[in-house]
Amino acid sequence: MLPEFRAAGGERRVAWEIGAGWGGFAYQFKTLCPNTTYVIVDLPELFLFSAVYLQTVFPEAKMRFYTEVDEADLFDGWQQLDFLFIPHTRLDLMRPPRCDLAINTVSFQEMSTAQVRGYGDHAFDLGVPLLYSLNRERSPYNPEVEGVSSILAERNRPPESEVLPTSYVAPHKPPKPSAPGAPFALRSTRQKLHHESAALGRAMTRPSEKPRLPTPDRVPPRQFAGRDRRGPVGCCPGSGLGQVLTDLLNG
Fold first, then answer.
1. What is the pLDDT of residues 8-24, one digit of tens each?
2. 18 Cβ contact list (under 8 Å, min separation 6)
């Protein structure tokens, strides 16, 4: 997918990120694919971070906020825009002349079923050929979403890939070796307590107490990279911000 965005002298394309946060992924994408109009739909208060950051790292970039022009003119001259900011409450304004890619990383899992379905349906209605999702099925403490991939699959065909062998919210570090000469049982006990206290984020004061470790959802995060039912299927294995871009490049 990304070779089409990066082609020198190629036609300008539109990428739509749902929930850009502070703008880190947008920076990486725009750096790799400068001939792109990058649309961000997010909580409006987060534009304080993403817009300031992106204007700082791209001081010559042409930016537009949805309040700066009449709604009917929001995408006028879109080929000259680098970044366009639209609040999530005005998703109806996200009607570009074209949209080549929709992206969500680690925020669908925090939404409700209705919200995820709304974004998936909007992408489908826009005719977006590829919707890329890097998300867990749901966050451990979010009972409001049924399952990200199953919701997106209602109008897309979702090939999936596991990207991490363990949950990224439950770090498991190997215990450090004890000093030579310590009894084996003592070494094992100390290592176990050190490991569990590190996971809890606090020092154990009474070794006789058994730590109560949290039990978050251990389902590893999954990626969803499905073209809608009107087009071919894409698949994007990998992990991490750089790996996500690499996956899209290889796709």
1. 678 999 999 999 999 99
2. 41, 42, 102, 103, 104, 107, 108, 119
- Give the number of other Cβ atoms within 10 Å of residue 71's Cβ: 11
CB 22 within 8 A of CB 50: yes
Amino acid at 186: L
Q: Say if CB 218 and CB 167 are below 8 A apart.
A: yes
Residue closest to 249 by CA, chosen among 14, 11, 28? 28
Q: Which two tokens stand for residue 20?
A: 């850009």
CA distance 30 to 38: 8
At residue 89, the 3 state secondary structure works out as helix
Q: How far apart are CA 213 and CA 202, in angstroms?
A: 11
Would you state the structure tokens that stand for residue 123, as one six-digit string?
A: 């992408």
Q: Are 226 and 164 in contact (CB under 8 A)?
A: no
**Angle, vertex CA 241, rays to CA 239 and CA 246, nearest 5:** 70
Nearest one of 149, 165, 170 to 214, comparing CA atoms: 170
Strands (E) in 88-189, as ranges, are 101-105, 131-135, 160-162
Distance between CA atoms of residues 131 and 138, nearest Å: 18
pTM: 0.68
> For the sheet containing 83-87, what is the strand order?
63-65, 83-87, 36-42, 13-18, 101-105, 131-135, 222-226, 160-162
How crowded is residue 194: how many other Cβ atoms within 10 Å of its Cβ? 16
Percent of the chain with pLDDT over 90: 55
Tell me the pLDDT tens digit for each residue of 207-242: 444 445 444 444 455 554 555 444 433 333 333 555
